[in-house]
Amino acid sequence: MESLLRQYKSQIEQQLPAYIESLQAPQTIKEAMLYSLQAGGKRIRPLLLLSTLHAFQKPVHIGMPTACALEMIHTYSLIHDDLPSMDNDDLRRGKPTNHKVFGEANAILAGDALLTYAFQVVADDEAISSDVKVRLISELAKAAGPEGMVGGQVADLEGEGKTISLQQLEYIHRHKTGKLLQYSVRAGAILGEATERQLTLLTAFADHLGLAFQIRDDILDIEGDEQKIGKKVGSDIENDKSTYPSLLTLDGAKKKLHDHMKEARTLLHEAEIDAPLLHYICDVIETRDH
Question: Which residues belong to the signal peptide in this entry (predicted)?
Fold first, then answer.
């Protein structure tokens, strides 16, 4: 499983720069876009999409444009998150953040460019039907926009320095992180011609997976290795941020993580698909150290 995912990751990382290099655009913006796209990372979102396609026994190349578009949107969100007006981070994955290298204005524009270009990439995909294309674009816009990631980010900003409830915290993470992870699985299922029942089950699976992903993130902020994570450990406590460990204790957060992963695996089994890659990704998310 690991070798197949490495192969998919390699294909994604070859395709992403090809999309940027083909642009008729100023070199500065292309370099800024590429800088963050090539900064590393788990590529969990495109890998979830391709792994879902694999579970439906479809050729994964049909999902590559949408997978790359998804990674562009995730990358734009990281560039903007790191800005002085947001999280004010100097490092991302152990490297200077985009605005530290290209300046704030170009970092904002690089994020804008990745966001808008992502939709062009899906729209220009000639391998899928117009109906599927419109559905993928519509769902991606919702997952990334005010009802999804952006809405979650706003709720996160409003919750800074306050004690919020577990329900409010879950709203933040279901939207800020979870909606794009959910889209990853849904897009793979749509391209894989899933039944409505399968799509419902996989959507619920991805919901639990997204929450588990964020809980693991919160745990790593307490007991992670700074060298592996590529950023300072303990920043959530330093910034007085509500997290799963702060609301549930560290042991409580670990139990919550286990419960979400157990439910995710049950839903995946009920979907009745051949999903060894998705099961493997569940294991990786539950035990990851960066």
Answer: none
